[in-house]
Design brief:
- By secondary structure, this protein is an all-alpha fold.
- The protein has two domains: 6-58; 63-128, no CATH class.
- It has seven helices and no strands.
- The chain has helices spanning 6-11, 17-25, 33-58, 63-70, 74-82, 99-111, 116-128.
- The longest helix has 26 residues, at 33-58.
- The chain is elongated.
- The relative contact order is 0.10.
Length: 129
């Protein structure tokens, strides 16, 4: 018979609402092995989703990393953020690795002495095509 407890799940660093709901539903159903198997599979899916999410987020870049790889200065990055041209993807202020390429393009425009307003206009036109 399969038994998951909140402690087992918390050891996996899994604190999602989905996991908690699955555990709540297990309360009085330990007698039916088929139901246990369904819950076990669902918990396994949730654990795997969380692991994939953590792995993906571990590759995200800090502002310093993004600046170093794209050639932007901290001041330029902050100003680009104010214009909503380059903003973090997470609440912790981290950026997707793909934004390095976008940062390089923005850096090139800045080195061509474009203003932030001109770059904002350029990006709007660029996405219309």
């Amino acid at each position: 018979m399969l038994h998951f407890t909140l402690l087992d799940v918390s050891r996996l660093f899994l604190f999602t609402t989905d996991a908690k709901n699955v555990l709540k539903n297990l309360d009085n159903r330990w007698g039916d092995e088929r139901i246990n198997e369904i819950y076990y599979r669902r918990l396994t899916e949730i654990v795997e989703q969380e692991e994939r999410k953590r792995e993906k987020l571990s590759k995200y870049l800090t502002a310093d990393d993004l600046c170093r790889q794209s050639g932007l200065t901290k001041e330029e990055l902050e100003k680009l953020g104010e214009y909503r041209l380059l903003v973090p993807d997470t609440k912790e202020g981290k950026y997707r690795p793909k934004l390095v390429g976008w940062g390089k393009k923005l850096r090139k425009e800045l080195s061509n002495e474009c203003t932030f307003d001109e770059i904002k206009k350029w990006t709007k036109e660029r996405w219309k095509k």
